[in-house]
């Protein structure tokens, strides 16, 4: 055994498992990264699931490490939200698990889920920590990502909104995930793809458990070097002191039981051009500054709604990782996962129904999708599936 002192902390290294110098260098890099993303807090709240939620002064959050934001403070929320918001008595405001403590961060601070050494060490590498390898449907490349999505394209879009129910799908392999989200997309599916994404996901690698968690993502180069999940890099500016991005959602839907929804809306503020995020019917979470993007500085060219999983095929066949509820779309309400009240934001900053909705399930025997329209739900989809089964191998 070897004992090293790094930044005033002792590190005990087992020489039978690692070369001492290599492990020391790795831990130094990990701790330096933790120091960069875990900002000093004025208060810490312990969630029932074990998460530590740090209350960080708003202008000291990771976003302001960006060269174009240094020395600035978060903007005030836009005065005009998209017109035509569809309200429904069925929409139930959801609390995150950490909020069950009845504690919130003080005004002037934001809640940030604390990243731990274990979180980073679960990743394939420090370079890939907090990043997707790829995360939008590409029409010719198969790298293990599978989708069941509805999409619109061929127009100019300035945002999107949907209500989705939340489940706890089984994820069978440590480097797989299952998510349900909306995508705001522009650019080509090559090196210059711009996306803004938000929804819920189960990712044992990223979070170390199987809870569905509210998440965000962005990229400007097709997931190669830019962007990240949540607040794990500079970019997204959070303004809300009651919602923690990356925190567990509670309660969740159950098969043949009660269904629990979340609302997600992303839209471009006509005045300043930034892309704002709303969670629930009223809570503004924050914004992606327009300068982060090239194509999305103007508008989006595609909007997607639906599910995505990673199938790593560790034993040469499809895994049992579920999408949505783990049940196929044709099973319907109370059994399958859904998105309802699908809308886009037009150039007049109005929420409007979808036109020319397209459906795509790239592995329909594993995960399916179907669409409909009603007076109550507007445009809606059911989607998902169990993964490996007699027809999905």
Automatic annotation (TrEMBL):
Pfam families: Neprosin, Neprosin_AP. Residues 67-86 are annotated as: Disordered. Residues 139-393 form the Neprosin PEP catalytic domain. It comes from the Eukaryota. Transmembrane segments: none annotated. This is Neprosin PEP catalytic domain-containing protein. It comes from Mikania micrantha. The lineage of its organism: Eukaryota, Viridiplantae, Streptophyta, Embryophyta, Tracheophyta.
